[in-house]
């Protein structure tokens, strides 16, 4: 069978014979060039295929050789360990990598957040990791756990984690403690002078025990707030507990810590998102009277918030990144306060206080700067309820006769707020502003009221 190049040559020969000598010479040169180029391209394509084949088989042989060099149970030479940690070392530098490999981190809580934090600390090369949790792997926890698989269901979470971790980084010392952390067990469980403690506990009482224990003893700690019922990864922040915006668990923790004499100095990972469409998972009717029987331990919640599995993993990896950089004294690492708007919130808070004093003769303001930030950002998205985006905004009461609160505060431009406050006491706001604006305001205020009822029930 003739090739396409043979057919091309025959066609060109017949074409050339029909023309004069000069034309034939020109066409012959063109044809020769085309055939030469075709030959070169064919040769290059064949060579690339052979090189690709050789490369693939060479990589396969190298991979097989590497696997063969690691006997079971897995053991790695120092050279192999350095190769496994190469990317992290390249990022941090050798001196900081040495610090990391000599570090000791304790993670309390081995669920969705804690397991991911532990996994990424392990992969980074933290030398010693202790994981504390009393609970077992369940089928429902597989949507968010970092390493647990079906065969781990029914086994302690820390046991499953240690088993899988040995297959990833056998050179890391992993300690698993099947125990419940509380004030009585704290001394034993946190022994050994850890360089960092990660709080990934989902029970508020034991979370407070851990925070206070570490705070009183100057043990460096990073605490995770709630990842349940959250969906927006862009809202995850790192801040001091005193700077957290209106996040339900953070708010509850902040208030209780204040009663313990702790107002700041506790860094936390939290989300500014306040979900509108999720609720506590209900107990089945036959379980209601025996709710305690379905809790992991007495006084632990048996009703839980639904969890989108991606969010705990992002919380955990955020924690791991923070801890790694802090342990290694990474330069210029200082997480920014949310949106760098603290100054704006303080200014708006002063303006609101001034309005309350002048208009309503109130000596205090029921909302603080954090409340102002939440209302401005989360409730009204930094826009006037009347005219939309503007760079001269203020907060004011919606209904003048009702007290200032989350359920009665709106965002307007400064001029709109002044005009709103001059309205007669008996004004009909719906007639004044129209149905569209009033419906939008009432809908948002009602959502906020329901949210507060929901989260107050949770925490």
UniProtKB/TrEMBL annotation:
GO biological process: cyclic threonylcarbamoyladenosine biosynthetic process
Alphabetical list of InterPro entries matching this protein: ThiF/MoeB/HesA (IPR045886), ThiF_NAD_FAD-bd (IPR000594), Ubiquitin-activating_enz (IPR035985)
SUPFAM superfamilies on file: Activating enzymes of the ubiquitin-like proteins
Protein's cellular compartments: Mitochondrion membrane; Mitochondrion outer membrane
Coarse class of the protein's main subcellular location: mitochondrion
GO terms under cellular component: mitochondrial outer membrane
Gene Ontology terms, MF aspect: ATP binding; tRNA threonylcarbamoyladenosine dehydratase; ubiquitin-like modifier activating enzyme activity
Annotated TM spans: 25-45, 104-122
Membership in a protein family: Belongs to the HesA/MoeB/ThiF family.
Function summary: Catalyzes the ATP-dependent dehydration of threonylcarbamoyladenosine at position 37 (t(6)A37) to form cyclic t(6)A37 (ct(6)A37) in tRNAs that read codons beginning with adenine.
Protein name in UniProt: THIF-type NAD/FAD binding fold domain-containing protein
């Amino acid at each position: 069978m003739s090739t396409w190049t043979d057919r091309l040559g025959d066609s060109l020969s017949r074409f050339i014979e029909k023309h004069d000598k000069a034309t034939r010479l020109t066409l012959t040169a063109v044809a020769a060039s085309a055939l030469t180029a075709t030959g070169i391209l064919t040769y290059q394509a064949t060579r690339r295929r052979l090189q690709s084949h050789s490369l693939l088989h060479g990589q396969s042989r190298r991979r097989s050789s590497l696997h063969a060099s690691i006997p079971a149970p897995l053991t790695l030479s120092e050279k192999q360990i350095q190769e496994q940690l190469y990317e992290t070392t390249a990022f941090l530098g050798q001196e900081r990598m040495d610090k990391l490999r000599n570090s000791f981190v304790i993670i309390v809580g081995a669920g969705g957040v804690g397991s991911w934090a532990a996994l990424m600390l392990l992969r980074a090369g933290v030398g010693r990791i202790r994981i504390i949790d009393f609970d077992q792997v369940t089928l429902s926890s597989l949507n968010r756990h970092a390493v647990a698989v079906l065969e781990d269901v029914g086994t302690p979470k820390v046991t499953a984690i240690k088993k899988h971790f040995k297959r990833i980084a056998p050179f890391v010392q992993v300690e698993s403690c099947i125990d419940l952390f509380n004030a009585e067990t704290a001394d034993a469980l946190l022994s050994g002078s850890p360089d960092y403690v990660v709080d990934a506990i989902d029970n508020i009482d034991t979370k407070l025990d851990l925070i206070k224990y570490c705070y009183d003893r100057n043990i460096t700690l990073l605490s995770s707030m709630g990842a349940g019922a959250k969906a927006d990864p862009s809202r995850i922040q790192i801040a001091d507990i005193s700077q957290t915006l209106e996040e339900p668990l953070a708010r509850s923790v902040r208030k209780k810590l204040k009663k313990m004499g702790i107002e700041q100095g506790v860094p936390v990972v939290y989300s500014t998102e306040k979900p509108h469409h999720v609720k506590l998972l209900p107990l089945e009717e036959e379980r209601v009277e025996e709710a305690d029987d379905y809790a992991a331990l007495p006084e632990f919640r048996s009703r839980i918030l639904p969890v989108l599995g991606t969010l705990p993993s992002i919380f955990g990896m955020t924690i791991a990144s923070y801890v790694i950089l802090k342990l290694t004294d990474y330069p210029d690492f200082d997480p920014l306060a949310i949106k760098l708007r603290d100054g704006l919130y303080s200014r708006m808070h002063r303006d609101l206080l001034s309005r309350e004093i002048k208009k309503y003769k109130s000596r205090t303001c029921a909302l603080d700067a954090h409340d102002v930030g939440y209302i401005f950002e989360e409730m009204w998205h930094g826009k006037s309820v009347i005219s939309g985006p503007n760079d001269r905004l203020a907060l004011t009461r919606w209904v003048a006769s009702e007290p200032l609160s989350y359920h009665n505060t709106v965002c307007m431009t400064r001029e709109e707020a002044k005009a709103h406050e001059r309205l007669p006491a008996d004004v009909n706001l719906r007639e004044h502003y129209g149905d569209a604006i009033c419906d939008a305001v009432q809908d948002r205020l009602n959502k906020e009221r329901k949210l507060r009822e929901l989260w107050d029930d949770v925490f």
